[in-house]
Amino acid sequence: MDNADLPELGALALRDLIAQRAVSPVALMDACIARIEALNPAINAVTATDFDRARATARDAEAAVQRGEPLGPLHGLPLGVKDLQDTAGLLSTSGNIGRRGHVPLQDNALVARLRAAGAIVTAKTNVPDMGAGANTRNPVWGATGNPFDPRLNAGGSSGGSAAALAADLLPLATGSDTGGSLRIPAALCGVVGLRPTPGLVANDARPLGWSVISVLGPMARDVADTRLMLQACAGLDGRDPLSAEQPDLFAPPVLPDPARLRIAYTADFGCCDVDPMIRRVFQARLDALRRLGATLEPLDEALHPLLAEAHGVFDVLRAESFYAAYADTLRDAPQTLAPHVRANIEMAGAMTLGDRAAAHLAQTRIARAFAALFERFDLIVAPTTPVTPFPWTTLYAEQVDGRPQANYYRWLALTYVVTLATNPALSLPCGRDEAGMPFGLQLIGPLRGDARLLNMAQALEQAGAGDPTLARPRPDIAALRTPRPELRSIVTHPPILDGGGSGSASMTAV
User: Which one of 61, 252, 324, 394 has the lowest number of neighbouring Cβ atoms within 10 Å?
Assistant: First the structure.
């Protein structure tokens, strides 16, 4: 294989080739950097880069291979890090003008674990301002275009990671998820995003240590690579009171026969607006699962009144989380906060202790209802998003199926219902929708059953590999060789590329 094609290989294949001395970490890094430089101007997925230090680390990784040293599970693999997550010596802006010169002194817990496993931090990936919203655009770096059509949005808030993976810029990337920020961009860009059980991946930066709505997690191009990355970053961390071990995650995967799976399905959980086209595409995926022999039953409609509470519950818990994270900033530097971030904080300020107690009670009922479902079913499936990708110039889906959405995140209800249940959920790429864009099937597993969920997802992925309605779609790479300068057009403040903090790493915009 030509070195220029190395970025198209999966993380597992690259790891094995590096261990076999068939691929040099230096050659792989050079190929990924060349691909970023060639294709990123078309999608603007990658923001700050660390190419000089990444190349130096790749040389060290190659020397370790030559010396025959023990290798970590991600040894020599280039990594993209979501710009909400701190990286030592590398610009970490969160897409916010108040942080556009922020260079952290140390990695967050997730990045530190991935580095310890041998991954090489290569670049940051784009996000909405402070992660608020599911359209990746901000005043520091601009917007991220969808690799299947850069005029359309890549989802969010892990949109830069998803787009970078879809275009084969990097083999692995990090994400995070509150209302769907791992799953939605994965679905819109045709890659895999896993929202793990809360605590499986430690988060030392979460202001509310006992809150379960925000998690960190892996993104990759297929389920096996996602599992590899999750294994490398899961585990206990004393700084996260929710962190826990899942020993079965490290056992060799045993893939079930799809014909033996008992699957509950729902197009809308009885409370989510979904466009008719997405309902039709979802029905076609259910038909494909039936062809594989799986047993499918509709989700019990008796749950609908309970799940209808999810909107109000998520309003409260999301606002509570934003208040904890940004209330001080609103007081001290309100001009640095985007309107959506301020709106969440102000919403929290108007809520009472009674509102919070009612929300937590309702969330508990939802979680227990999902737990009861997994006494009867192996898996729950639903669409990941209610709409096909819309133009990145449109901030959010203001209407779904002709119904106005109450706020900028209401269109994410298909994923935030599952957030409230706390179950692990994975977006599996399953062909294209009627507009020719990627379609993601949301697979929901039992609480703390992340390994089982990955096993089921991988079994369905393998069984559907030859079926265009179930297989992962690929973008037209040749079309991505045309730069899209308009993606940077919403930048209102030029990025600071060499200021603040510590470290001498290369920090440049791509």
Answer: 252
